[in-house]
């Protein structure tokens, strides 16, 4: 189940929002994807697999991680971001956390996104 969206890694490309089959995310007021309907998450890993900057962590559970779990602590998960992509071989040769992804949805979003001053 989706547990963490890393604000430090996220580039607000909306890919996770677009690929989620159960509409778990909303765009937050800060522009970051917000886990709005965690109970609807099917633990399909689509958001994590498609995230070009490894900003998402999906815990391998069918329900929310218990309070205090390391699966909800971004600092404790530092090495786990992008791990699913690596295991399944998606993005082979890609540097984890790289912003140089060639996904057309991601690159178009970055090209047209307003720049922060």
Automatic annotation (TrEMBL):
UniProtKB keywords: 4Fe-4S, Iron, Iron-sulfur, Metal-binding
UniProt-annotated stretches for the region Disordered: 92-117
Biased composition (Basic and acidic residues): 99-111
Pfam family, any one: Fer4_10
Keyword Lipoprotein: no
4Fe-4S ferredoxin-type domain residues: 1-30, 31-61
Top-level division of the source organism's lineage: Bacteria
Gene Ontology MF: a single term: metal ion binding
PANTHER family: ADENYLYLSULFATE REDUCTASE, BETA SUBUNIT, BLR5484 PROTEIN
Protein name: Ferredoxin family protein
